[in-house]
Design goal:
The structure is a homotetramer.
Chain A: E1 8-13, H1 17-28, E2 33-39, H2 43-52, E3 57-59, H3 62-67, E4 73-76, H4 80-92, E5 96-99, H5 107-120, E6 124-126, H6 134-144, E7 151-159, H7 166-170, H8 175-191, E8 195-203, H9 208-212, E9 218-225, E10 230-236, E11 244-251, E12 254-258, E13 266-270, E14 273-276, H10 283-286, H11 288-304, H12 312-331, E15 335-336, H13 337-341
Parallel strand pairs in A: 1-2, 1-4, 2-3, 4-5, 5-6, 7-10
Antiparallel strand pairs in A: 7-11, 8-9, 8-15, 9-10, 11-12, 13-14
Chain lengths: 346, 346, 346, 346
């Protein structure tokens, strides 16, 4: 297994939707990875996924995988409330870690996890897959090249085609930690600057039941960046025309935007108008490529011993932002990130 | 002049850029209007415009026109600080009034003008020309038809190609009363709901001199509507790619947007990419049609004795919004419109 | 009337649809023109147009206008079969001439007219208005600047929203002389090269009655240019989605195209798809600007004593092309232009 | 291997570019296929591909695979001049056959191959992958649903980003059999009607060397369909802006087109214009999905014992069309398909 074409032995923890997706990619599309095991508390689910993607080992207890000295890296796809603990255990076992977002809804648990990672010197990458979307990458690339000059204004539109089940929502941590957390990361990624202050307006307009559990489904978040730029994030849980994921950055020398990729390129003209295809339906379709690229880059960072492209801090800050957004909504006023994070925010 | 094809005798006050534009339209493109006179304190300017558009009378003192019993309606294109007074004088003289925006920066003066109009029973229309832009009209039409269901979110992008001279800016009343006032009107027009609360973030990023005079050039305004919808306005004084005037309204059943009309429809493909034309350069190009339609509809409201499509109240509320925006920026907090307008807001 | 701001006295012959259009433009939008008279065999029609656009003189016999020494130029908007004769008479009277297309369906009459123009030394401009469309101008501009390198392939799509009445069609000279003649001119304009050979496939598919009178409504014309490039013209009499007028030129270094300008820029997204506005309905809407520019440039050529931008030869060659297309269709074979024009084609 | 989840044992013949592509798909993305062997006259190439995609067997002589009773189907990716013979041998061995296009340049060899297939009762599918492109499928779907009414006019634009090496071109059979053959198939697929007559104009304009070997690089082919519709195909070997693959079908009730999918959805606006991404570079990128779908549908037709979606006749007719195109170019006249195919064309 050593040598120029060395493959990294990797295991997946969690055989749910996203665990299956990463398994599929690691099994066939990531040249540098050898997917050797999968764990799920539901052993049957682990076995089924193992059979489908020719994974040699399936277990119910992930600790067995952490004990396996042949496994170099793990992919954490278990429920959010287990992430922080598994990160600590995996770090203690000397495994490199890819963890689905968010690390945890509780900042102190996040910090414990990050400390363990730092102490053990393993790599941690957080699954903010949208950074690897070729459309958003191109936007960032043009900004980095100076093509728009000094960035002044950012707009992110991020709307789901339909709300998740109420059971999911109840455990989600609220729209800011579940949904906006991706956009908070995107804001930092595109602007290459931290956010200092957040102001939120919002309501439950899609479904009153969402309001009844204290959550929102329609929000606009205003951002002030450390570099003086300003921006907005627009979230909605139900865009009937499909997954709406756009960004636009305006600067002193121009503007760059990324539009929704469409299901196909057809254009139909009749006496009613000109008609074209809807956006790709939801995140599995829209971000199919980005999931592959993120895993490839994680494997590369392990193999080349380089910094993963999304760090633990990159995983932490959007949670701080989510907490600030929550506070801003509750108090209807702009909130500084330092109010929810004290001296920790960098 | 009476009869089925009766023309309305009209006079223009002010022979500056916008006065010339209205004169040109009234002289040749508005079938129901007979442009009989123009006034400008600079008599030469009045005479020059009169010669160009075959206007019979040119005077320096607009009071002469108000005294002329043959003149039925006037178009006020003089400096902003004269609007309120001329409205009162014209109303007293029984003339119907078209007044360029804004009525005044001082709410009490606006109110005096509106009271005079109401008392004398003349018509007053305020020149929010963008309401007559065919693109934005189409957006409103689809909303009114219920095509997007319940409107949830509004976004207005409104950026100028280049800032005006500092002299202009100093007298402009600030970005909210000079520039955003149009977008405040657009927000009310599209959403058919009043705004209750405004929050502003902004800076002077285009030109530090704009900051030195206490003004802003880069702002995002968050709006809460009475009907529960939310929205943003994005203003900037310098979009290097030209006049950027877009709107987008998202609702429970769909979304409708209006993009920038381009200078032409060419598409050029070379090895660098696919290239197309910039937006129409500035407001005279972009809104060329809307200026004609607004004047035609003013004349029609006079001839048919109907309510003008933009009322005095429509002229007043955006000024209230501008004052609330100013206060929000100064105090960095959301501001209720009632805070700046007391019991007057409807 | 002399001096730096000299206006050119001009008269319109024919008060039909296009005569009214030119009258309107000459009366108000062409600074250098003074529209002093209009003639129509139907005096009432002439008088009505005169009243509408403040034209001092209305007569039934256009010869009166040719006799008037104050009139410098005429605009021929009478039926096609009168064009050649009026051109000769106007040339003999020393008037500069703007003539609607086509000059005549009979090449010998065209040649007599052009000879008269040459002999008398007056200016003749033929009304190929599409050359003045800003979209097509931009295409030509990029080609002329070398942006696409050597042009290889041209495609012209030119479809009407609905066929004209059968009465019109019977007198139209057939689709090639009535409709394609514009596209033949566009082909020469864009490619800056003459066509040597034409091949036609076509049928009457829109309306069998069009076939019964020996005409076609659906044709594709293949062109070989003298410079080695090749191209097609696609004509149809009924595009239910509106006036479809596009061009595309492909070359060694790139491609440039012009798409249809839409009625407005709205985009509506619902669960069925993304919907936008139809093209501007027909030629009066689509080419509204081009009609103004062509007349302005005619007046300028008269005032500056320069060559009009569309010459008599430019008016003649598309007729030769139409005759070749007709022959190609009848004989189902490629036809050289020299077959229908002998030694005359340049 | 039997049962509900039965997999079809399949082997690939030829380990060149397209053989590798099919191997990759069969190895990981086609659930119903078990890729058990690969053959290439260059054993090392076969072994290398086998290693890369975990294919158990690699041989140099494909006859070994035809002798293997466990192999049910083969994929022919060898050079064109071997296709017809391998088809006959595979049919004799009772294997189902997927064959890359074209079957052969010689119609009599094609016919021998098709006869063998018919006699042995095996399935044959020809690799016209573009039929499986989601964009073109959508176009066909709308036509089949009657959304454009009666189809009148077809346009196909099909341009490569760069010409292949001269060595390839010399063995290619010429542009009509190598490149246009795909577009001939697309024409039949979209219009659901056979072509009766073909007329060609063309030249070698991209590279004079292409002309020197008697080939063309710039052609326009005019088509007459049996149902009375007409159309064009535009081919060019060098579009500097990338792979240009568009179709447009115009009918009595509307038009449907498919545009080029772009590399990404970014839009960059600066003072020069509005810029967006180029089309996906070449066929491997543009048709990545269509290659997967075609193989999946082939496997399904084998497993379900249904007619493959592209038949042997579908593979044959485009060759007839290519021969007619060649003749048309040589004789500069429209050529009936029956002229090159006698009584055989269906």
């Amino acid at each position: 297994m050593m040598g120029t074409n060395r493959k990294t032995n990797i295991a997946v923890i969690g055989a749910g939707r996203i665990g299956k997706l990463h398994s599929k990619h690691l099994a066939s599309l990531i040249a540098g990875a050898e997917l050797t095991a999968i764990a799920d508390i539901d052993l049957e689910a682990a076995q089924e996924t193992a059979a489908r993607f020719n994974i040699p080992t399936a277990v119910s207890d992930y600790l067995e995988l952490l004990d396996d000295p042949d496994i170099e890296a793990i992919v954490i796809c278990s429920p959010t409330n287990t992430h922080a603990q598994i990160i600590q255990e995996a770090a203690a076992a000397g495994k490199h870690i890819f963890c689905e977002k968010p690390i945890d809804h509780d900042l102190s648990k996040v910090d414990q996890a990050l400390e363990a990672v730092e102490k053990e010197g393993v790599k941690l990458m957080v699954g903010f897959n949208r950074r690897f979307d070729p459309n958003f990458r191109k936007v960032r690339e043009l900004i980095t090249q100076g093509k728009i000059g000094v960035p002044h204004i950012l707009h992110i539109i991020s709307r789901d085609p339909a709300p998740p089940p109420m059971e999911y929502l109840k455990a989600s941590g609220g729209i800011f930690l579940d949904m906006t957390v991706h956009d908070f990361d995107m804001a930092r990624y595109l602007m290459a600057s931290e956010v200092n202050e957040i102001y939120v307006v919002g309501a439950a307009r899609v479904d009153p039941k969402i309001g009844e559990i204290g959550d929102l489904d329609t929000v606009i978040i205003t951002l002030r960046f450390a570099n003086g730029a300003i921006g907005t994030i627009d979230n909605n849980r139900k865009a009937v025309y499909g997954y709406d994921q756009r960004v636009e950055v305006f600067g002193s020398k121009g503007m760059v935007a990324a539009n929704n990729p469409a299901s196909d390129t057809h254009v139909y003209s009749n006496q009613e108008g000109i008609h074209s295809a809807l956006p790709l339906y939801f995140f599995l379709e829209r971000y199919s490529t980005s999931y592959i690229i993120e895993m490839r880059e994680f494997i590369e960072s392990v193999q080349n011993n380089t910094q993963p492209p999304v760090s633990g801090t990159d995983g932490r800050i959007p949670i701080v932002m989510g907490l600030a957004a929550k506070k801003s909504y509750q108090e209807n006023r702009p909130v500084q990130l330092s109010e929810v994070d004290g001296s920790k925010t960098k």
